[in-house]
Design goal:
Elements lengths: L3 H4 L6 E7 L15 H11 L3 E6 L4 E5 L2 E5 L3 E6 L9 H12 L4 E9 L14 H11 L3 E7 L5 E7 L9 E8 L3 H4 L10 H8 L9 E6 L5 E6 L5 E7 L6 E6 L7 H11 L3 E9 L18 E9 L3 E9 L4
Bound molecules: S-adenosylmethionine.
The site of S-adenosylmethionine has 20 residues, from β12 and β13.
Length: about 325
């Protein structure tokens, strides 16, 4: 029988979002003209590959062997888990966008991740955030790095640019969940579900944001990834590592909401995590005032850490919750 060590999978993702300055006068000024073979080459540097693809008018969405990639006219999002080497793509990405689209200006970048369960298994700079920051600093002059949460326990790292880059309304909401309920995790195995679509239906993921165009994959023997596309460049993406000794789920979306209460309630009801971390990022155009007192849905949750950051262009709320085992 394989040991727990051999079966360990690091579900925690590295997440990169890059906003490019887009040129109205250029016919090639759109990241979506970049051919798939170029993305495939770029992803090789991160040690992952495309396994599924869907698109709508505003966005191209790729399910990867390790999480997801989204491409819009002027925005690139890459989310990779396991022992991928995401930051190896950053310089080649900038060169690729320059050579194919003639775009050199970078409005903002966001590189973030939760602390890993097993950082020693990561490759190169990804073993610790200080080295990741060093790598990013070589590329960007005005980078700023932060740690939210407890440096010796659960925390969340962020690297962004210290500038007023993105002028259009923008927000990103993330729920990172771990210590999951085993019963719920069964759905994301081939033993219990036939396909990605079957798991999406059985779990109730299909009801989180109705009307989305969904591309879902169920891995063999277990594991699940989905991208959901909505009109006007909105998306959501869910990734599940169901193995009980390292269970982890992530939910991410840029859909705007006055309050995220309903969305959070739906996601928590599906996955039942014992611990979860929430980040809400919103720029001044889409200022989001998060008030913890309104958190009716978490009556049974304990807030362990709650922090609010006021950046030059964005506000960020970070909250870590734990729930008693019922
Ligand atoms: C790619 S998925 C989603 C990972 C995601 N970051 C998460 O939130 O957990 C990872 C899950 O799929 C399983 N899996 C099965 N085959 C895989 C493969 N070829 N590559 C990556 N993961 C695979 C892993 O064991 C794990 O349970």
């Amino acid at each position: 029988m394989a040991s727990v060590e051999e079966n360990f999978f690091e579900g925690t993702e590295k997440l990169l979002e890059v906003w490019f300055g887009f040129k109205t006068d250029a016919t090639n000024g759109d990241l979506r003209i970049i051919p798939r073979c170029e993305w495939e080459e770029l992803l090789k540097l991160a040690k992952c590959e495309i396994i599924s693809y869907c698109k709508n008018e505003d966005m191209d969405a790729y399910v990867l062997s390790e999480s997801s990639m989204f491409v819009t006219k002027d925005k690139f999002i890459l989310k990779t888990c396991g022992t991928t080497t995401l930051l190896q793509t950053i310089k080649p990405l900038i060169q690729l966008v320059d050579s194919q689209c003639g775009i050199r200006e970078i409005l903002d970048i966001f590189y973030s991740r939760k602390n890993f369960s097993r950082p020693e298994l990561q490759i190169g700079v990804h073993q610790n955030f200080v080295d990741e920051v060093g790598h990013l600093d070589k590329q960007f002059r005005d980078g700023a790095a932060y740690t939210l949460g407890r440096m010796n326990k659960d925390c969340w790292y962020l690297y962004t640019l210290d500038k007023h880059g993105v002028t259009q309304p923008d927000q990103t909401f993330e729920l990172l969940m771990w210590d999951m309920c085993d019963n719920r995790m069964k759905i994301f195995t081939k033993e219990f579900s036939e396909s990605g679509a079957d798991a999406t239906k059985k779990s109730g993921i299909c009801n989180i944001i109705p009307g989305a165009k969904i591309d879902d994959v169920l891995f063999e023997p277990c594991g699940y990834s989905m991208n959901g596309l909505l009109p006007d460049g909105y998306y959501f993406t869910i990734h599940v590592t169901p193995e009980s000794h390292c269970s982890y789920v992530s939910f991410e979306s840029n859909v705007p909401r006055e309050s995220y209460d309903e969305l959070i309630k739906k996601v928590l009801n599906i996955f039942c995590p014992r611990k979860f971390l929430m980040t809400v990022f919103a720029n001044r155009v889409r200022y989001f005032n998060f008030r913890i007192s309104k958190f009716r849905v978490y009556r049974i949750s304990l807030i362990q850490d709650h922090q609010f950051c006021n950046f030059k262009n964005y506000n960020l709320t970070y909250t870590l919750f734990s729930r008693p085992i019922l």
